[in-house]
Amino acid sequence: MTSTIVIVGAGQAGAQAVDTLRREGYAGRLVLIGDEPELPYQRPPLSKKYLAGELTADRLPFRHRSFYDEHRVELKLGVRAQRLDPGTRRVVLVGGEELAYDRLLLCLGAESRQLACPGVELAGLHYLRGIADVTAIQAGIKPGARVVIIGGGYIGLETAATCRKLGCQVTVLEMADRVMNRVVAPVVSQFFSQEHRAHGVNLICDARVVGLEGRGRVERVLCADGTHHEADLLIVGVGCVATTRLASDAGLACDNGILVDEYCRTSDAAVYAAGDCTNHPSPHFGRRIRLESVDNAFEQAKSAALNMLDRNIAHDRVPWFWSDQFENKLLIIGLSQGHDRTVVRGDPATRSFSVCYLKDGELLALEAVNHSKDYMAARKVISERVRLDPGKVSDPSIALKDAV
Amino acid sequence: MPRIVFIEPDGNRREIEAPLGVTLMEVARQNNVRGVVAQCGGACACATCHVYIGASGLAKLEPREDMEEGMLELAWEPRDNSRLSCQIHITANLDGLEVTVPARQRVP
């Protein structure tokens, strides 16, 4: 029986792994290391209800401290792992403490991609990744404050919606010709653009930021076309990169994430990895993927935990994602890459519709705007690889599961 | 604080004092009630906090909204008394509410 499992990273994946390990009967020593001081907590509300002040800090953690005590989990929070030594199976923490492990799970997550342009050293520039970031942002939010957000992805748009609700003047600068261009169809981008504009967000696409200016702190954002935007507060949401340094420094194979197999094993037999930091095979989609999502952190950590207990279960899930912006809920299931046609179900003007991505009639992915029914049906259709009739799919009066 | 009675999938009965204002899902999660997964943390996005509400409690709850309705369609064995526990806020009049956790959550 394995006697010590160490988990580095106390986010969604790390917390889930703890849960699964104990639930499945692992009775050995269990150590959870996290670099933030808080108990493992949920990140999705950070750009939404938590930033808005609708959810208090005590409701963010997955579990109270008593859970970890009862389940004999040694929490080492506010502590950074400095390096790994796979040869001697040790994790060395900043400060010098060494932890020997029999099995190690890396749940390192992802980190905000840094803006690269003149002026990034100025104060008043924020990223949104953790509780501390939100605390800093909240200090600058007040009615009428001019908030400039660089990046029209999930984080940028959710934050824009929240800041508008709080009475700020909000400008979103998106580099591409439409918002969320990496993750949704043009018709969905258009719907959300309209929503943001209708709520008073100054949304500008094709905006290339070339510099930040100000005396000591950011006062304005300069764009390539010569325009500039005055800012009391600047929030940057231009994507994430997998956190891999700890792994790569230790010689573990990495390539856009820590490389793992379908059993969540890294290139070292005693080291597993799960969540945003991994580049993993997707048997369903037949290729390697790296995901930034709660769902993958949760499911892959569960798989990793089971495999650390020698259950030998291949990780094969259809990923899903969601976003809340104003009163709208976007639900996405599957991965659209490789599709040969898209079909829109329903009329965006009704504020409830979905977009289906098909390949030879097989549904690869679905984006649902305020349409949980299609989303739930698609979960089943995609995982069972049901072939659909595109003609029937385009008729919203036919339930998706019956569009065969 | 109102007391909520959870019946876990194996039939185990647990009486838990629930703080006002939080959701039924949060009460379940913080008390490690078996079978309530709550993957999305309360965004009505995952249908993994599905529960059955005891007959006397149903009338005390706000009705399901469209999003929840759609989510429940493909939950594990939905019934008339199915609810997503993240959509139920704890109020004083829920004292004694009986909540049964299904054998499984969503499929797949």
Biggest sheet features of chain B: 5 strands, mixed
Q: What is the tally of helical segments of chain A?
A: 10
Summarize the amount of helix of chain A as a percent range. Answer: 10-25%
| β-strand number of chain B | 5
What labels would you give this structure?
heterodimer, A: 404 residues, alpha/beta, FAD/NAD(P)-binding domain, Enolase-like, domain 1, 3 domains, five-stranded parallel sheet, 10 helices, globular, B: 108 residues, alpha+beta, Ubiquitin-like (UB roll), five-stranded mixed sheet, 3 helices, 19% strand
What order do the helices and strands come in, and which of them pair?
The complex is a heterodimer of chains A (404) and B (108).
Chain A: E1 4-8, H1 12-23, E2 29-34, H2 49-52, H3 65-70, E3 73-77, E4 81-85, E5 90-93, E6 98-100, E7 103-106, E8 110-112, E9 125-127, H4 131-140, E10 146-150, H5 154-165, E11 169-173, H6 186-198, E12 202-204, E13 209-213, E14 220-223, E15 228-230, E16 233-236, E17 240-242, H7 245-249, E18 258-259, E19 271-273, E20 278-282, E21 287-289, H8 294-308, E22 320-325, E23 328-334, E24 341-345, E25 353-359, E26 362-369, H9 372-383, H10 390-393
Parallel strand pairs in A: 1-2, 1-7, 2-3, 7-19, 9-16, 10-11, 10-16, 11-12, 18-20
Antiparallel strand pairs in A: 4-5, 5-6, 8-17, 13-14, 14-15, 20-21, 22-23, 23-26, 24-25, 25-26
Helix pairs in contact in A: 1-8
Chain B: E1 3-7, E2 13-17, H1 24-30, E3 50-53, H2 55-58, H3 66-73, E4 82-84, E5 97-100
Parallel strand pairs in B: 1-5
Antiparallel strand pairs in B: 1-2, 3-4, 3-5
